[in-house]
Design brief:
Length: 454
């Protein structure tokens, strides 16, 4: 067994970052003033997502040169991505959020750290100090002037640097943000766009009249309507004291999980997709559900949520270059007894069925449900995978990132999957599982994680 439980490493608490300049950047060409429709998926994602992308030094691209190139590249990118230079607004007639594509600008910040990139420590382990590499707002702006995109460039003493993005989730999902990075890299190399973004969010508009054909137990209604100032999330930040731990599954561990699923499968063996993601998610599910203090109530139901890209599942399919949020939440539900005693293949099968459920009709039903009720995905916890997004495969003029990761906050009900820092083509590499739980639950999770792998 090659899996490792990673003890918390010694982390820098203060990256000693100094901001040297901050400004608004504007589209390099005139763009059309218009309001962008936001789908019902976009509507409930009015919160920021922060990511950091670390780069080693490159003698041909000193930090000051990269900082200038990035600024000009962002200005160019704000033409095809004109909504990033806009502002969220609430349409008083419809009660819906829209983006006013008014070319009011995105943010650009230049900073430096007193440390080298190597002194940042283990980049895979989510150090909350990495939040110092991302800017959430510009001090020069009015408090209600909320930018949809801010890029912070931070140089390190060694000549390496970090790009820190803060983007409103209503603008991108993981795949479309990857395409944005591909395009930013192409523009920095004075090349044409790598992907022409499809910005038509009407493609995911609700039907008229809305038609909800399914019960959607994975969704819960909002008590308040979305507003320009709403900052709701699928799961709220917890006030509990949580321990962060990373659990590494090697490629051998993942293969063993898949083999276990095959060996315990029954008649449905040929119809179940025993993928790496399905096997890993099923393994995490049983560990997380059984780590809760359920007492003797093994009949308690546990619902796991996980994201499914609906671009290829719609009829006709959405363009792969669709720039908005085209991800919906699949779910699986089982009792703690089944998670503890049932064949592993059945858990993998339930995860697989959750994704299979996401047909064109089901996805349209979810969107229409949002038109009628407004609301969020609802379950015991969510598995959020950054494993296969490919941020570290983006080829910039100065090379690929050494590592890319989101800024992680205290959420006990979100478990994150990260790639390994040494990932090559991503086809057969390990995965890091980030878990945040109270101490008692963490100890139980750790015990179960290894018990079920043995």
């Amino acid at each position: 067994m090659g899996s490792l439980y990673e003890e918390t490493p010694s982390l820098l608490q203060d990256l000693k970052v100094t901001v040297h300049s901050s400004c608004l950047v504007f589209p390099s060409q005139e763009t059309e003033r218009k309001s962008m429709f936001l789908s019902n998926i976009d509507q409930v994602l009015n919160f920021s997502v922060e990511t950091v992308h670390f780069f080693p030094s490159n003698k041909d691209f000193p930090p000051n040169l990269v900082a200038e190139k990035l600024k000009h590249s962002l200005e160019k990118a704000l033409v095809p991505y004109d909504f990033l230079a806009g502002r969220l607004k609430l349409n008083p007639k419809t009660g819906r959020l829209e983006i006013d594509c008014n070319a009011a600008g995105a943010g650009y910040v230049v900073a430096s750290s007193e440390y080298t990139l190597d002194e940042m420590g283990d980049l895979v382990y989510p150090n909350q100090a990495f939040s110092q590499l991302v800017c959430m707002s510009l001090d020069t702006l009015e408090p209600d002037d909320r930018l949809l995109c801010i890029l912070q460039f931070t140089s390190f003493k060694c000549g390496g640097f970090a790009m820190g993005f803060s983007t409103n989730h209503a603008t991108f999902d993981g795949l479309s943000f990857k395409h944005f990075l591909d395009n930013l890299a192409a523009l920095a190399a004075d090349k044409p766009l790598a992907v022409s973004p499809c910005n038509d969010r009407q493609l995911l508009a609700a039907r008229s009249p809305p038609l909800v054909r399914f019960s959607h137990p994975e969704l819960v209604k909002l008590e308040i309507r979305a507003s320009q100032d709403s900052n709701a999330a699928v799961f709220e930040l917890t006030q509990e004291d949580l321990a962060f731990s990373t659990f590494r599954l090697t490629s051998s561990d993942i293969t063993n999980l898949k083999e276990e699923a095959k060996s315990t499968s029954g008649a449905k063996a040929n119809s179940t997709r025993i993928t790496s993601f399905n096997a890993i998610t099923a393994h995490i599910w049983r560990c997380k559900a059984l780590s809760c203090d359920t007492g003797n109530n093994m009949e308690r139901l546990s619902t796991i949520l996980y994201a499914v890209d609906i671009r290829p599942r719609l009829n006709p399919p959405l363009p792969s270059s669709y720039s908005g949020n085209a991800v919906l939440t699949a779910y699986a539900t089982a009792s703690c007894k089944e998670l503890n005693e049932g064949p592993f293949a059945r858990l993998v099968e339930m995860v697989s069925e959750g994704a299979k459920r996401m047909t064109d009709e089901y996805a349209r039903s979810v969107i229409d449900w949002g038109e009628l009720y407004k609301g969020f995905p609802h379950g015991e916890f969510l598995v959020s995978s950054w494993w296969k997004l490919g941020f570290t495969e983006v080829e910039y003029p100065w090379g690929k990132p050494r590592y890319s990761c989101p800024i992680v906050y205290h959420r006990k009900d979100i478990i994150l999957l990260f790639p390994d820092i040494h990932e090559g083509d991503g086809s057969n590499s390990g995965v890091n599982v980030l878990v945040a739980l109270p101490d008692k639950e963490m100890e139980k999770f750790k015990s179960l994680f290894h018990k079920f792998l043995a």
